[in-house]
Protein: CoA transferase
Amino acid sequence: MRLEEAAALIRDGSTIGVGGFGVSGHPMALLYQLARQEARELTLLGITNGNDADLLAGAGCLKRLETAAVSLEEFGLAPNVRRAVEGGCIALGEYTETTMMDRFLAASLGLSFFPTRVLRGSDVPKVNLDIREIMCPYTGEMYHVVPPARPQWAVLHAPAADPYGNVLYPRADALVEFDRLLSQAADQIIVTVEKIVPPEAVETASREVLVPAFKTAAVVEVPFGAHPCGFGGWYNRDVEHLRYYVGAGRTAEGFQSYLDQHVLGVSGHADYLHRVGGLGHLMQLRLDGAVGLL
Structure:
């Protein structure tokens, strides 16, 4: 499937969950394509988002964001999200990282709510009326409860998959486990990968399957599909480009210029990669041993 076809599966008004964390591991090529195709009225669910949410906010794709934070880490605040929330263009549902994980877990288990103790003494329930209190029927103890987070679509970036949609991720870490939980919570999954591998690769590495084929609606081969994010074990974040991105986002006019040059004004992902420096620049980001992992 082509990137354009995969992005077209996500209709206006959909609820999506985006894999990755901060400025690492997001399926940026697919998100750029959503912006290019002028997706609108999306609700984004996440744990700690970064330039994924900021890009969609700046491109006018979002109507609501539910997350613990939007952080560009050492590169600064997320200017487009902040501007959109302060201007009333995006509704914000504030949670903590733990309670967002609880929400995805609740969805994966088919639960209508999830109880938690972590919000005791917190002001978060004061600004989020979707967080309620209940009494335990066994002990009489009071708990906060949060609703499930069930995206219609999870969009992920992974190292490899076979043509059927069995997604391989040989490197286990906390980021991978969040992507796994997100995939279990979602109705359907779209995955971009660095490389599509033959089915035999899955047969010999079945323990490394992150998402089974029956859950995958679309898989697209997109080399450097997380750029400018880093992709753990494969390539580093593009520091130069992220600094440029944040600088452009300081004003709405500056970010529109960024969109015109790198999103709306390109013919596709290959053209985007050429504009950000081409193969020579990208190979400088690749980590030693990354090619062997694929």
